[in-house]
Amino acid sequence: MMRTILCYGDSNTHGAAPRGGPRFDLHVRWPGVLRDTLGAGYWIIEEGCSGRTTVWEDPIEQHKNGALYLPALLESHRPLDLVIILLGTNDLKHRFGLNAHDISRGAGTLVDICRRSDAGPANQPPQVLLLAPPPLAPLAGTFFTEMFAGAEEKSRRFGAHYQQVASERGCHFLDTGKIIVSSPVDAIHWEAPEHAKLGAAVAAKIREILPSTEA
After folding, report:
1. Which of 32, 70, 91, 95 would you label with 64, given CA atoms 20 to 30 Å apart?
2. 21 in any annotated domain
3. Is residue 140 situated within a structural domain?
């Protein structure tokens, strides 16, 4: 039986390149690397949207609230064996005025939505893998300097706060800040080699959580 996995994230899950321009190729962005690495027995669904937040309404960029879209998505793709959540970077925008603790709690709300659903096999909740976003690179001189003012220090606290949220909810956890780094080009997005590293690391984690049932 094939394992079905949903990757729920923002522009980095969508495959946005640090220099702008075209989206990274299917086999370059991390969900594609994940699909290629896991191979037969796993079906990977990519759901990345640029600007997506955890639970917050953006007064400038509309339709970005991750908590509003997730329930319909769970219904659309059910049954799901695993939901991977990688959100929180956009919550660092200065206009939201949030700290790392509150952002991690927003991510926790998304975990709760999954755990309260019946979108998994046999109408049970799917398993959840919560990923802490990596710290931002230095913002000075980038396009995002003012938009993300003060975000560098906050982002360095993501790992500890997200781990606490995962521990409280009993879901799986991975700190991407121990695996990849954000690009110095724009401080927010990742270069292609980082996508490759993350895809491989997440694949290894998934094999622990959901061993393939393929012979």
Report:
1. 32
2. yes
3. yes
Please give the tally of structural domains in the chain.
1
Task: Give the span between the Cα atoms of 186 and 22, in whole angstroms.
Answer: 15
- Per the CB < 8 A criterion, the answer to whether 57 and 65 are in contact is yes
Q: Could you list the residue range(s) of the whole structural domain that residue 73 is in? A: 3-209
pLDDT tens figures, 106-149: 999 999 999 999 999 999 999 999 999 999 999 999 999 999 99
CA 209 to CA 191: how far, in whole Å? 27
CATH of the domain at 75: 3.40.50.1110
Sheet holding 42-48, edge to edge: 42-48, 3-9, 82-86, 127-132, 172-175
* pTM over cut 0.85: yes
